[in-house]
Design brief:
The protein is mainly beta. The protein contains one helix and 18 strands.
Length: 257
Amino acid sequence: MTEALHFKSDEMDFSPMHGDASGKAACCELIGPKISKTIDAGIAIYDDCSIERTVNYDEAAVVLSGTYRILWGEDYSRTIEAKFGDVIWLTKGTRLKYQGDKAKVFYARYPVDWSSRSESMEGVKPLTEVYHFRSTDMIYSQIQIHAGGFASTCSLVTSEISKTIAATIATYNESSADWTTEYDQVSICLGGVLRIRTGENYSRTINAKFGDVVWLPKGTPLKYEGDKGIMFFVPYPVDWRLRSQPHRPKPWPASVR
């Protein structure tokens, strides 16, 4: 098992991608097969470019800055424009164009080895349409009420629409919640400071700030803390909670447009 990893935003290196796409397209690959057996993750930049593909992965993404645009549907007749804090969900078999205006986007994909797979996408139908979760429509519920301070979550991608990865936004402020991950998880800080204490006797502290990415393999013991911390979490598998708590009721859905 790999240990918890902290990728600091100001230390990330971006490499050009899709040189034939015009404009600027670049990527910083963070999580891949050398680290993970499940989730692939990184940060991409799209500016005045257009990247056309039929995806061979499931993807959950959150916008960090700029305007992120996805064209899809018949003859690319449908358009999603996402701003900071908006979350996009799309599934394997979706034919689309990635575009953006100075857009910076964090993405998490399943499977981890999608880029080395050569299977044909012809005839593969996406499990769902492309979902756009607007940050202004998200509804949060308080969690860990005995942990002090305040902590909340907004469940976005659940087993209702996904067979692989989930996606949630959580907040932690002056709280301390003990946890052991029952999943592989990659996350990115969207605001404030998210503090993760892990290691023997919680001796290691990760202070994640805006744009920092954290990798937590399954079985990691930790404490979630924070100072107005906002975090976008992507765990695998999507049904990890139902596997350990099979009688737990379904979460309230977020508004989707």
